[in-house]
Structure formats: C-alpha cells, structure tokens
Design brief:
This protein is α/β, with parallel strands linked by helices. The protein is 37% helix and 15% strand.
Length: 213
C-alpha cells in the first residue's frame, strides 16, 4: 500500500462555503481520490482552515499550529513512512494584512519542501516524493472573505509560475490546480462539490503517473 500525505489548508480540509461546515468525506477531493485510487493507496488528510506557508499572526485561526512549515515535521513523523507528500498551500498568505505576493508564497512552499527533504519520512528512512500544487485562483472574494482578502487579489494568478519555478529548483513534481478547477464556492475562495470531484480526478491521474497504477 502506498501512503500519500495531502498537506494543505481549508481547500484540503473540505470547507463548504454554503454551510460554513465541512463537506462529508465522500464529497471532499481527498475522499473522492481515495475511492478513485482504491485499496492500493492510503490517502492521509492533513488540511487545516487558515493554514499559511510561513505566516503566524493573531488573525490565523489555530495559530499555534497554523504555520505550514513549522508543523510539517511533526506531521511527517506521525505518518511515516510516506511515498508521496502533496503540498497545496499559499492562498491564505494572500490575506490582506499579510501583504504577501506570489513569490513569497512560493518561497514559503520551498520551506515546506525543505522540511520533507530533511525528514527521513519515506520508505526505509528515505525521502518521500513531493508534488507541489499551485492552488486554484480566487477571482472575487465575497462576504467575510472580502474582509479577509480584500477586493484586489491581483498577482495571485502568478502563483502557478513561481510554484513551477520552485518545483524545478527542488527537483520535485508540479501541478497547477487552476487548470482543473475554479473557486466556485459561495464565498469566491473555496471549492464546491463539482470542483472537489474535478480536482480529485486530476490528482488521481497525476499520482498514477508518479507512483504507478
């Protein structure tokens, strides 16, 4: 059985903007992915609302463990041995008070990749494979998400470019989720059911290429 860690924020946790609660497991992309891949794979969900790459401040929900690069070593050790670590973070770096940009988010993901490389969390104390994913690009935050992110997310569409550059630098795989889905959730930031299903399909195809069917 191949073990895959899905490390992310509320997009991985499965936040439903219509209800402000979590999608059922079989409606989240992680749950759909588990069903698609079958028993030869084990999908490990590690999503957290508000998680950033490297930012820690009073506005971060669960701030004591909401910084991706800080918490990842513990999570890697907890779930070892791993065959693949999927990292899909960066959207929350763009919350308005942080004044971050796509390059900053990419560098934050680079810190997470470095944690994986130094973890010995793979098979036989080796290094797991890494898939760096550029998150879907929010177009227009609505409601409270507009308070958090502001009404101008110009520059966030550059994440895919800088994430791909980062992936090449570290020698890991890359996927651009924005090519598969949009943030069609009610708040303009999160995914709806259809988005989750589409994203799961894209992950399934990518994982089969990386790890074999």
């Amino acid at each position: 059985m191949k073990h895959i860690l899905c490390y992310g924020d509320s997009l991985t946790w499965g936040y439903d903007a219509e209800t402000s609660v979590r999608f059922p497991y079989d409606k989240r992309w992680t749950g759909i992915l588990q069903k698609e891949l079958g028993h030869a794979y084990r999908i490990i969900e590690e999503g957290l609302n508000g998680r950033t790459t490297v930012f820690n401040d009073a506005f971060t929900p669960n701030q004591a463990y909401g910084v991706g690069a800080d918490v990842l070593p513990m999570i890697l050790s907890s779930h070892a041995p791993l065959d693949l670590v999927i990292i899909m973070l960066g959207t929350n770096d763009f919350q308005a008070h942080r004044h971050a940009d796509a390059k900053t988010a990419a560098r934050g993901c680079g810190s997470c990749i470095s944690q994986v490389f130094g973890s010995n969390a793979g098979r036989d104390n080796g290094i797991p494979k890494v898939l760096l994913v550029a998150p879907p690009v929010p177009e227009k935050p609505v409601g409270f998400m507009e308070v958090a992110f502001g009404d101008d997310l110009s520059g966030i569409e550059k994440m895919a470019h800088y994430y791909e550059v980062t992936a090449k630098f570290f020698g890991v795989d890359f996927m651009n989720a924005a090519k598969a889905v949009k943030t069609n959730g009610a708040d303009g930031i999160h995914l709806d059911e259809q988005d989750n299903a589409l994203l799961a399909q894209c992950f399934s195809e990518k994982i089969r290429v990386m790890l074999g069917s």
